[in-house]
Every structure is written in structure tokens, then in C-alpha cells.
Design goal:
Layout: H1 2-15, H2 17-49, H3 53-67, H4 75-84, H5 88-107, H6 117-130, H7 133-138, H8 152-164, H9 168-180, H10 187-199, H11 203-215, H12 222-235, H13 238-251, H14 257-269, H15 273-286, H16 289-292, H17 295-304, H18 306-312, H19 316-339, H20 351-358
Amino acid sequence: MQAVSNARRISRLLQSPIFLSSHLRTTEQSFLKGLAHRNYSSEVDNVEATPTEAVKDLYDKMLESVKVKRSMPPNAWLWSMISNCKHHHDISLLFDILQNLRRFRLSNLRIHDDFNCNLCREVTKACVHAGALDFGKKALWKHNVYGLAPSVASAHHILNYAKNNNDTNLLVEVMKLLKRNDLPLQPGTADIVFGICYNTDEWELINKYAKRFVKAGVKLRQTPFETWMKFAAKRGDTESLWKIEKLRSDSMKQHTLATGFSCAKGLLLERKPSDAVAIIQVLNQTLSDAKKSGMKGELQKLVSEWPLEVLKHKNDDERKTLADSLKSDILAMVTELLDTGLEANISLEDLNRIEEVAQ
């Protein structure tokens, strides 16, 4: 009986004008909100799916040329189409017309060669600009249906995008594509790859790719060595630092500001402040006046920033001992530098923070 009574009470409540009115308003609001969301989403999708007018016009003209008129369109049309691509759908049309042009060149003109490398580079650049990385990666395929001649220079556009966005996943993808399609690594490739690894704190990755560059016989320029050695010094990895320094010294006689200070940091880690002073004095004697102007800034970062970075990469057992040694040895190094006549107004206040971090 109690259950029947409760059922009747609920039934009357559901039928009441107040409940019905409230329920209808809620339902209507939900419906309108959902409808508005669908309409908005549809409008956004339509905008993204609509190609740029200039791109669509050029696409239609070139397609008519090869399909109807059976003649090769002017090269200027294709270059103009590439430069006008702004959205993913534009790139989709671009790759479609490239495939049609390649097919026409093969069947009608008996041209088996791909388009030149310059065009491939500009196509890849357009893909990156339009955010169509899926198509950009296709431009690196050795055997593709678009007539594109892949090159490392094309890959650099995508790698620079990865660097600007700290995207290590994209870096790994591109490096795999380079290997799979037998595209030779270049010194410029190392510049970008090492920069991505440093900015994203990927120590294992930078060592993996460094071995690949060295094995391929790529002559690394100053920038990758600077990045690699600075990374090793930041982690307090002296074993790796001296191996990298050996590679650097085999190809370069003089230190740069960055590599010299990395070695000074390595010597401080080994508790050799006087040797660190000697390195800095050599830099002061050999660097040009323009480069020498950066010494004060590097010295201040060595005192204020570098010890804190190193301690972050050490475990609790090592941290306290290392903090004490760095504080005393950096102080000894700065004192000796000033005694030798180096003109540098260095603040030592941040040395006290070393102990705070170590605790």
C-alpha cells in the first residue's frame, strides 16, 4: 500500500503544471544550446573545408588544362597556387593537382623525372605554414605519387616547426622518415635537432642522434657542439662532457665562449678551480672583442644559475656534498680571476641559494 501511495504521489508531481513548465524549459534550453553548438561547429567545419578562392581558381584552371585541353599548364600557375595555400584544404587540392600533373607528364609528355627540389621545398614550406604536417611528411617519401623530389632541406622546414613547438614526437617521426627514405643528414640538420633536444631536456635523445650524425660522417658545426656540451655541463655529466670535447677539438682548434665555459664548469665539478680559471683566461686572450663582451654574462650565469641546474639532476645523497664543493670552488675561482686582473663585477649573492636547494 505504501508503494502504491508513493507511485500516485510521483505521478501527480510529474503531471503538475509547475513541473511540466520547468521540465519543458530545461529541455528547450538544452535543445537550443545543442543546436547552436552544432550550427557553430558546422560553420567552423565549413570554413576550414572551404579552400582559398585563389587556390580553388588555380586548381580548376590546371585541372581543366590537363583533363580537357590535354596540355601542360604554365609553371607560374603551380607556383602561385603554392604561395597562396593557407589552410589544410588548400594543401589537399595542391597535392591532388600535383598527382594529376605527374600523371600527365608521364603519360603525355613521357617525362619520368620528378619536379625539382626547389618546388618540393616550397611545397613542404606551404604545408607547415598551413598546418598540414600530414602532407608535409608525404613530401619526404622517396617514392611518392606527387612527383616531389624529397630532400633534407624540405625536412628542415618541418624540423623547425618541431623546434618552435618543442615537439619531440614530430622530431622522432621526421628522423625516421629521413632514414627510411635514404636522405643524407646535413650539418644544418644537427643544428635544429640538437636545439630541440636541449629545449625539451631530452638528454638520451640528443646522444642517440649525435651518434647517428657522427657515424654518418657529418661534420658538426660550432652550434651543435655548444648545445651538446652545455647540456652535459648542465647535467653535471663530466664523462660525457670530455668525450664531446674530444670530438670538438678534433675538428676545431679554438673554443667558443659557450664551449670554453662548459669546460670550465666540468673542471669545477672535478674540483679544479685553478684549471677553470686557466680556461677562462685563454678565452679572454683568444676571443674577439665582440665575443669577449659576453664573458661577464656567462660568468654571472655560471655563479647564479648553473649550480642550481646541476643540483636538480643529482640524487639526494650527492646533492649536499656537491653543493658544498661548488660553493667553495666557485668562490675560489672568482677570487683568482679577479686577482689576475679580469674586469668583471660579479654578484656572489646567489651562491647562498646553492645550500638551500641542496637541503
